[in-house]
Hints:
The structure is a single chain. A hairpin with a 5-residue loop joins β1 and β2. The chain contains four helices and two strands; from the N terminus they run αααββα. The chain has helices spanning about 5-20, 30-40, 50-65, 95-115, and strands spanning about 70-75, 85. The longest helix has 20 residues, at about 5-20. With about 120 residues, it is mainly α.
Amino acid sequence: xxxxxxxxxxxxxxxxxxxxxxxxxxxxxxxxxxxxxxxxxxxxxxxxxxxxxxxxxxxxxxxxxxxxxxxxxxxxxxxxxxxxxxxxxxxxxxxxxxxxxxxxxxxxxxxxxxxxxx
Length: 118
């Protein structure tokens, strides 16, 4: 099976699982899944988030997702328990489609690591 086919199948399976758990029948999009990862990484599930906090959660998720690729490194937790990362290497200039593929690969790897999918 080609890498692209395997990624597509894993991505679709993951979207189905997460959409069934967190959505009213609508497929979650990439941004919604990134947000969920941010909440997972923060570990504060039973609360509402303000707009700026939602952006910060997405930033946490992106840092965590791209950490295995060498772009970010966990630095510390602040006094409120929010994780902070430092940039290890600047992201290369990617076209929109390339960014999407990179994020989908990183998300699939994250959920394989968390043993939600295989």
